[in-house]
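Friendly challenge for the regulars: who can give me the structure tokens for this chain first? No prize, just bragging rights.
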Amino acid sequence: MKGHVKDDTLSKSVKNAVAMVVRLSDSLLVKFARSDSNGFFQIEKLPIDTYLVVFSHPNFGDRTFIIMCNKNDSVLDIKNVSLPIKSLMLKEVAIYGFASPVYFKGDTLIYAADSFKVKPNAVVEDLLKKLPGIRVDNKGKIFAQGHVVDKVLVDGDEFFGKDPTIATKNLPANSVESVQVYDKKAENAADESVETEKVMNLKLKEDAKKGFFGKVSGAGDFNKFYEGQLLLNKFKGKQKISIFSFGSNTLNSQLNWEDISDYGLYGEYNFQYSDEDDTYFSTDNNASGIPKTLKNGVYFTDQIFKKTKLSLNYTNTNTNIRTKREVFSQYLFSDTSYQTKLASDEQKTMQNNLVNLSITQKIDSLTTLTLSSHFKYDKGKGSYNESRQFINSEGASQRETIIDNSNQLTKYDVKNYLSLNHEFTKKYRELTFNYRYFINNNNSNALLNSANTYAVSESLNEIKQEKTSETGNSEHMASLTYTEPLTKKIRTEISYDYTADKWQQDKKTFDFLNGTYSQLNDTFTNSFTNSRQNNRAGLKIYYDTKKKFFAVGVRLRQVAAESFNIETQQKYSQTVNALLPYATFRYSSSSYRSLYVSYSTSSKQPDLNQLQPLKDNTNPNAVYIGNPNLLPSYNQTVNMRYSFFKAVTGNSMWTSLKFTSINNNISNSVYYDKSTAKSITQPVNVNGNYNGDIELQYSIPLFSRKLEITPDINSSYSNSSNIINGVNNSTKNMSWNAGGYATLHADSNRIEISLNGNYGNTFSQTTISSSSIKTYITANYHASISYEITKKWTVESDVKYIYKTQQAQAANVSYYIWGASVNKKFLKKENMIISIEAFDLLNQNINAEQTVTDNVITYSKSNVVGRYILLRAVYKFNSNKNADNEE
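First reply, four minutes later:
Bragging rights claimed.
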């Protein structure tokens, strides 16, 4: 046991304070020690037991602790033992239970937040970046043990809906007691492709749930750039009220990755790799375009009656973004190749309103009813202008296309859930009924203006059309699950669920004639419906002990689907049966070491756009047509995760391995017209697709944890199939990345230096072209320093270096992004901070990307927010009178 003794009033170190260790069972004095001239003490070789520890000094009152030890822990650091003056002698006892910074409780991974040092005024996102096995990318997406975190909760509840960044970017890190990570059954688990979701729960400290806390901040350069923010949290008993507002036109746009995906803010060329897509991505660190964002929300939860809990929140988001992009693409074939050059200008405006309501009713001690509803309404408009040039294999320009599109859309989604859970008096016997009802509607109106100029004939081909689209969907799902314990360690689960959904899509295209869009174009007009009935029955057997958990089960599923083409009166019917086995094994030799292995199968249904046999010429150079004969895909996935944490040394390691094989993968058959560079794409089922990845991270603390080094290595491999001009094509992508980070705390934590980097190599090859073998390198290096000059003044600086080799006849990319800030704390509690912040001082920030997709190599460059300098003022307020909590 070690620690530091100080004066409670003056915060000065106390010399010669006596620490007496008394065994609680018999009041025997076991050991004692005195604090040195700097107030530090240390007592070694204490037997495992429960002790009463009394700190005493003639000039001060006593301070008493109860210490409960266990065999898995060997060091207790009581960082601050505050001795009160005698006139204010405290009548309190602090109880300390040894806890590891990282440990498992069942299948939940728990991080003790206070065990990880973060700088003053840090937010939850800063804390997450310190946790072993947790990674936060620059878009706010959170990864745990190599997998995306689907949902972030605060004390078990959604915080402002499903937006994780509201909590992670705004809640103070020192308000969090622990971070919990676990897997749970997804709300849409009847969709076989998403059976579980990874959840992160931020458990707040009790002190943080009393009174109120929040912050107000504003920043600007008095010319162009600005940021503003308000966050207020108020607690009273079990009632919680939160208000949030944010506005910005900087890179800190406060858009989470789900917003970015929903609004399409990364443009059409930022492909992402998924289990069932044929694309591999190489993304940059920055969102493209110049954003403007205004986001507001209110959150309320309360135990309104003795057995009734109510949660309600509303969020409004207004977004505007303008993106200018230059794209160079190279198309490779077995006998030739061609290129395209594109310049585009896109502007999007979107307004989003989201309401979430949840009521939990405890009917009796064994029965709980939960009702929840989610309503989302979107309204937006956009414009897109493009100039594209087609260059043949000899380097001659053959065609130029000008596109001018505009569109307006409205969309709403309603999701309702009901869950009734009854636990019996017999342990583990349980009956659960779930019902959900979804409805959504999407209406759009667009204008397409396109003109093609051909170099050979100098002819002009024009398209002027108005396009309307209305898509609607409704879904009902009911499920019943019964769990029965067979023995103390073995139990069985029987389940059945039924899902019925119906889609309808009505698309119309009108040609421009006699000054109006009045001529119906039958080629691009169609009405289409699709309905599905899904029956699924399952059986699962559990074996559960303190250290071992094993589950094996199987689901039998039948999907009866029927599609109807209203225009042609054609009907497409299919019935697909699938056997979906799965197994899970978890072994925890201790609270700090865990092995997890799983095998799962899933099946993904084609969506409506993939099924409807209608030509879509929104991009006249790349026409898309659906395929009503598509079959569901069938996936088999093996997952393995292993992690441990050593409490004594602080060393930790986690590794993950994943492999997925896909049958009947929904891929594309693409026909390229090599003379005009136009294409027609249709989805088809293919086999031979698989992918895998492995990652290893090891954390090594040195010099009493003042220095922490964490190397990281990962590798991935994928094989995907598609059809190009009637020929089967296979694309292999292999990549590896090596990197890590190091953090140094020096001079009593006044100096923090962080270094991290990543060096990666990607190899890509397609069978359709021998010249498609490509290898390129990406490297990212980042260094940052924070120095607390005095208690009031802090300076910070960070530098990023990015390097990429390019293949699509473009130059290699390398640039630096340098940022710096100076901060000063004001007021008695130091809860006002004035700072000057600079981003991209060298004005080199760009967004340059390269993607390899089947037989196409694409290089794109887009505009981003460049250099700016802000003057920022932050005021933090807290009803807690302890000044320590204001930092």
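Residues 189-194, 259-286, 882-887 have pLDDT under 50 and may be disordered. The helical segments are 124-128, 164-168, 257-263, 608-611. Your move, everyone else.
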